[in-house]
Hints:
Blueprint: E1 6-9, E2 14-17, H1 20-26, E3 35-40, E4 43-47, H2 51-66, H3 68-75
Antiparallel strand pairs: 1-2, 3-4
Organism: Glycocaulis abyssi
Protein name: Addiction module antidote
Amino acid sequence: MIEKCTVSQASAGVSVELSADLADSLGIRPGDTLTGIRLNESQLLLTASDPDFNAQVEAARRSGTEFRNAIRALGT
């Protein structure tokens, strides 16, 4: 899906305006923080997910599998 966005002057830089439909479909609300990932010199990927949070969830999943017996023992 290709969607045009408007870039406006902001106090300390620029802001990118998304259409209401696009923001709703991505679950983005005013005040949310997006993560920008530079793909190359002319492309930027904006994502509503937080890579640090995703890495922490993955680490917890691995730990839960690896230490399953110890976690069960602590629960009893």
